[in-house]
Amino acid sequence: MSTSCVAFAHDAWVTPAARALIAEHATTVDEDRLAEAHGLYIDAGHPRRLDAAYLDRAPALRVISSLNVGYDNVDIDECTRRGIAVSNSHGSLTEAVADIAYLHVIAAFRQIGEGVAWARDGRWLAGPPPVADDLAGSTLGIVGMGAIGMALAKRARASGMTIVYHNRQRRRDDVEVDARHVSFDELLRTAKGIVVLVPLTAETRGMFGEAQFGAMSSAYFINASRGALVDTDALYRALVAKTVAGAALDVTDPEPLPPDHPLFALPNVFVTPHIGSATRQTRDRMSIYAAQNLVAGLAGKRLPQIVNPAVYEGGTFAQKGDASGYATP
Ligand code: DGY
Prior knowledge:
Blueprint: E1 4-7, H1 16-25, E2 27-29, E3 39-42, H2 52-56, E4 63-66, H3 76-81, E5 85-87, H4 94-109, H5 112-120, E6 139-143, H6 147-158, E7 162-166, E8 179-181, H7 184-190, E9 193-196, H8 210-215, E10 219-223, H9 232-241, E11 244-249, E12 269-271, H10 280-298, H11 316-319
Parallel strand pairs: 1-2, 1-3, 3-4, 4-5, 6-7, 6-9, 7-8, 9-10, 10-11, 11-12
Bound molecules: (2R)-2,3-dihydroxypropanoic acid (DGY).
């Protein structure tokens, strides 16, 4: 077999079907043989950032296939410059992440974290339990209205919420979920629940800080995308000052959030450990999509879920074709 790959994904994430498909086309080697690897099969949970320094150690690399949809752990421009095709599992987790985001909306509005603590800690009859807010009649603001945002909006509409959203451009199909496109400032000022679903990029890193939390009027803040979109210290201060009424977070910065982190001590904070895509069916899809992308890349074919199509332009990718069977796309 002439190709090899390095797999970083958690074993539990790689289904037997994906494993078998990869085994048909490549030999999986350990990271200490990175220098000879033609492909990487990764998930966003592994600690390495695939940047220039890392890629220098992998001169034979043709393809990086990520199980995830988010690819903020990969320096895409650097990969493109080097002719390395990168893929994600676009479309694999829309409904699962929309479910977890919806759960977090409900958890924030209904103060589920505090309610669970009351029941668990014997405070059931100790006084009036926390009283929360209705979803029905409240406005939900979605920042980053992609496929997951649309799927969340459908769920929130079913709860009787009014939907506003902010994207750079208005979506033509926003009428399908009766959502209104507004400026970021208007969303911050008017929404009772604010859900972040934008990808993490250099531009969006830290987009929720002191000023943004200060502009909210006692809103619930929900993050189901990436922790680093948020200045965690600023969020903590806003929660203490109650300019933010509560937070429900499936993602945090840092991640994992240490058990002694001050956020855990606040009653109005609900945290889950980045489990947006953690259903059997979704993980199966992610795993097989990633295996299919990897195998295509190892064979020199265009990746079905290419993230950096520019890699196919200008001949960079073609120049990497060689006698070992790497066809040019
Ligand atoms: C992704 O794939 O980017 C999700 O965050 C995984 O849970």
